[in-house]
Design brief:
This protein is mainly alpha-helical. About 55% of the residues lie in helices and about 5% in strands. It has 4 domains: about 5-90, Arc Repressor Mutant, subunit A; about 100-235, no CATH class; about 240-285; about 285-353, no CATH class. It has a 3-stranded antiparallel sheet with strand order 1-3-2. Strands 4-5 form a two-stranded antiparallel ribbon.
């Protein structure tokens, strides 16, 4: 991310931790990162740049601060846009149309599979026997090889072209151009992100966002209707909630007793709580059993003692007796519930949106 990209994920109203943004991109799914990613509305960034070095965004942040476009609270590592930054952020910058769905798919794996599949089919259609396949990981090569053996036919090239065309026609023309420019095939080596960015006068990250938008549309099409990509991508659709957290959540639904669930699953109580927070962050209000955990008394006490903006709430500001009575877990879950629109219904924490 260059400074021109970082400025797009900052706001003047909310101070945002640079390390949270960095950890989201690197795919670090700690409860803290996920919680603040939700608060910042940046969860779609999860895992989009797993090779990003720690501190890689620092130079971009310093550039914004030096240019008067953002302020930095060094003690808390928080950035906030200045009035000048708000104006600068209003430039014509691409906003992905499918971003809300990105966490439902292993998008990075889908990208590798689609790019390699397009190359393989293109070369096959032109009866090319010798070419250099794209560099991908072993899992991708194995998946594409097995897929190709299942679906190859004389019509495959045309079918693939139709699937690509139908998907990309649903997005802005510029996205289609960028997405296809990055493809590799017969007598088409494909451009690099940097080459495309220079040609379109954009940043490399903006080009990546366009490509991901195009690839996500291809994937969504393949999910709702049969295309050559359907069987290639089926296994990559996923719940953002980990399997272990799903098992914990189901056990809590059945018993409502966190200590009992910890014993049944042979995990620590702290792990049960982490699993529940993860699920609450990703799931809609109706998808989580708040009423089994947040008692009316807890909600009443927290409502009395937690006022103002959620971002400003501090667990340590609660009365000492309240901290003794309720672990930080309840404080965090209450904040998630309130953010998602939670209210008491008939004296109970509602689970309906």
């Amino acid at each position: 991310m260059e400074a021109a990209d970082l400025i797009q994920v900052l706001t003047p109203q909310q101070a945002r931790r640079l390390r949270v943004i960095e950890n989201l991109l690197r795919g670090k799914k700690t409860v803290s990162t996920l919680y603040w990613g939700q608060r910042y509305q940046l969860l779609p960034l999860i895992g989009l740049d797993k090779t990003l070095d720690r501190g890689a965004l620092d130079a971009s942040a310093r550039s914004l601060v030096t240019g008067g476009l953002a302020t930095l609270d060094e003690e808390n590592d928080q950035l906030r846009l200045t009035p000048a930054g708000v104006i600068a952020a209003q430039r014509d910058y691409y906003r992905p149309q499918t971003a809300d769905q990105w966490i439902q798919l292993d998008l990075m794996a889908a990208r590798q599979r689609i790019l390699l599949a397009v190359q393989v089919v293109s070369e096959y259609t032109h009866a090319t026997r010798r070419y250099y396949p794209l560099m991908t990981d072993l899992a991708t090569r194995q998946a594409v090889r097995a897929w190709f053996q299942r679906v190859k036919s004389d019509q495959l090239g045309q079918q693939l072209l139709q699937a690509l065309t139908h998907a990309l026609e649903q997005l802005p023309e510029e996205v289609a151009v960028v997405t296809t420019s990055l493809l590799t095939g017969y007598q088409h080596p494909g451009l690099t992100r940097e080459q495309v960015a220079q040609a379109h006068q954009q940043t490399a990250w903006e080009v990546t966002l366009m490509q991901l938008d195009g690839l996500m549309q291809i994937s969504q099409d393949a999910r709702v209707a049969e295309t050559p990509f359907t069987s290639l991508l089926n296994s990559l659709w996923q719940s953002p909630v980990t399997r272990s957290a799903q098992l914990t959540l189901e056990a809590v639904r059945q018993t409502g007793d966190l200590d009992r669930v910890a014993a049944q699953r042979r995990i620590k109580l702290s792990t049960v709580r982490e699993h529940l927070l993860e699920a609450a962050i990703f799931l809609p209000l109706s998808g989580f059993p708040y009423e089994q955990i947040l008692t009316p008394e807890l909600c009443r006490l927290f409502a009395q003692n937690l006022t103002g903006a959620i971002d400003d709430w501090q667990y340590t500001s609660l009365p000492a007796d309240l901290q003794q009575q309720y672990d930080f877990f309840y404080f965090r879950l209450y904040a998630i519930w309130i953010e998602k629109g939670g209210v008491l219904v008939d004296g109970r924490a509602n689970s309906e949106s």
